[in-house]
Amino acid sequence: MFVGLFFQFDLSDDYEIQIYGITQNEIYYDKGELTIEEADSLADALEQTGYFDDYSTAYVEKKNNNYELFFSFDDSIFDDPTF
Questions:
Q1: H helices then E strands: how many in the chain?
Q2: Which of 11, 16, 30, 83 has the fewest CB atoms nearer than 10 Å to its CB?
Q3: What total number of domains does the chain contain?
Q4: Strand 57-63 and strand 66-71: pairing?
Q5: Rounded to whole angstroms, how far apart are CA atoms 29 and 51?
Q6: Are 83 and 3 a contacting pair, CB within 8 Å?
Q7: 17 with 28: CB under 8 angstroms?
Q8: Which pLDDT band holds residue 14 (cuts at 50, 70, 90)?
């Protein structure tokens, strides 16, 4: 079974990319919406949940003091019984 979601992000000059950990995880965020401290804090939370155990990418937007996180996944995740 194929399940797919597609989000297109305009990664203009306003976006910053931060790299975390030995697996080179990436967080993309708009510099006008988030501070680097907020990105670092989100990265810490993603590491604690195990999301950053393997190479991963997250896109973060902040709207009305709420964080919206978008994740990219390899479709093999659906074969993982723990998912």
A1: 1, 4
A2: 83
A3: 1
A4: antiparallel
A5: 17
A6: no
A7: yes
A8: confident
Q: Which two tokens stand for residue 43?
A: 């990265």
* 19-64 confidence digits (pLDDT tens): 888 888 899 998 888 999 999 999 999 888 888 877 788 899 998 8
30: amino acid identity, one letter = D
Contact between 83 and 77 under an 8 Å Cβ cutoff? The reply is yes
User: Residue 72 has which token pair?
Assistant: 């990219």
Domain holding 59, by residue range, is: 15-78
Secondary structure (3-state) at 23: coil
User: Considering only CA atoms, which of 44, 49, 43, 51 is closest in space to residue 77?
Assistant: 51
